Amino acid sequence: MSASAVPPDSPSGPPPGTASRTASGTPSGDERRRRRLALVGGSLGNLVEWYDWFVYASFALYFADSFFPGSNQTTKLMNTAGIFAVGFLMRPVGGWILGRAADRHGRKSALTLTVTMMSVAALLIAVAPTYGQAGPFGAVVLLLARLLQGLSIGGEYAASATYLTEASARNRRGLGSSFQYVSMTCGQLLGLGILITLQHTLTKQQLGSWGWRIPFVLGAVFALVVFWLRRRLEETDAFKEAGAHDDSARGSLKALWEHRRQAGLVMALTLGGTVAYYTYTTYLTKYLVTSAGMNKNTATLVSFTALTVFAVLQPFAGMLSDRIGRRPLLITFAVGCTVGTYPIMTALGSASSYWSALGLSLLALVIVTGYTSINAAVKAELFPTRVRALGVALPYAVANALFGGTAEYVALWFKDAGHEKAFFWYVSGCALVSLVTYVLMPDTRNAALSRAEEEGAGEAGKAPTAAAGAAR
């Protein structure tokens, strides 16, 4: 992929934000504080967004009976998984609308809007009537809430990935962007932690009757706190620089079409990662319960412990990518997932203890870390500022809608049809497609995301090596 040069109409003089650097070119104390605030604000908001998104899957075992009558537990879970998957169908719409907003009006405004929408969706689920109270209307409310969540999360991923990448120093973008999955995973851990707490304080009948509503109420409250925090964030220098130009095509589908090859890369490199991630996170607890025969409390504890270690690993893998490049980690993930999924999932299906299930889950999540820790940076580094958020959002959301959101449903469909192990080959096949992409694509580590980075590379005698040129 060819490098993008700084456009000739870029403003002269130092770009926004460079005044906060010292004479030696190192970041000043003010700039370091600004970057820390950006990291905290972007990450905490992302945590709450994904908490609300994942808590649906974590509590599905308890509220499935409230909305879907019948005696077949697998069918009930398929219905709730179907609504979970439908939420993904709105993610491309959210990616388009909010990605465009982030490119035209700023990353900060898009981040504030997404968390507001997620708060409303959480409240809808919290007050949704059950089948016994309102018949199928309760499931309709559940569906509408998931659609709104899908709209929100479709924009959240792009806005936070772009914001965290642009707000990080050039030589620490892998580290900075790794906090997207740290916060995503911590959001899921928060949901699982609340689930474990409720499992030990409420009876199964209470959890199934009304206890499952508690995490959604808490999610709405958390979102209000994050709304206040995100309003205090500063816009990134890269966007300020792009905002100096009167570009009516910024954030448009026309502008994205000019970078359709990069958009295709985003879809292909996302395919294997998103299927593997949802397999070993949202589906894992159900798999341990329904296939390995583990009780719900133990399965939940396995997921909680494994995800805690997984979250801790992300920054270390991000830092490693800043030293050796992005492709080695991506290729390692894809090879491990292609050849390792079948034996790992087969062994998990017969795991009889907490420790055996935990060891296998950790092995799987260590492999997945090669993708999750750096995928936000890789995608952001592929595009110029004028279309970066949309370029990350739309193709990623499409890939997630087709493959990530349906992973759990596909797994349960194979199980219901009596061919559960066919799903393992499905996951391996998706990883294989991404492996080919990783081998053929360029490494994006040295991409310049702003004029300041472009000039800094020139002063250091380096030529930009990726297609994500400065604002244009």
Summarize, please.
The chain has 472 residues and is mostly helical.
Would you kindly provide a written description of the structure presented here, covering whatever features stand out?
With 472 residues, the chain is mostly helical. It is built from 21 helices and no strands. α12 packs antiparallel against α16.
Main sheet properties: none
Helical residues, percent: over 70%
Rg over CA atoms: 22 Å
Tally of alpha and pi helices: 21
- Global shape: globular
Kindly report the average pLDDT value.
Answer: 82
- Count of individual beta strands: 0
Task: List the helices and strands in order.
Answer: HHHHHHHHHHHHHHHHHHHHH
By helix and strand content, what is the structural category? mainly alpha
As an assembly, this protein is single chain
Low-confidence stretches: 1-25, 461-472
Strand content: under 5%
Q: How far apart are the first and last residues' alpha carbons, in Å?
A: 18 Å
Topology:
Elements: H1 29-67, H2 73-89, H3 91-105, H4 107-127, H5 131-134, H6 137-166, H7 173-201, H8 204-209, H9 214-230, H10 237-243, H11 253-257, H12 260-280, H13 284-290, H14 296-324, H15 327-349, H16 354-372, H17 375-381, H18 388-404, H19 407-416, H20 422-440, H21 451-459
Helix pairs in contact: 1-2, 1-4, 1-6, 1-7, 1-9, 2-6, 2-18, 2-19, 3-4, 3-6, 3-18, 4-6, 4-9, 6-7, 6-17, 6-18, 7-14, 7-17, 12-16, 12-18, 12-20, 13-14, 14-16, 15-16, 15-20, 17-18
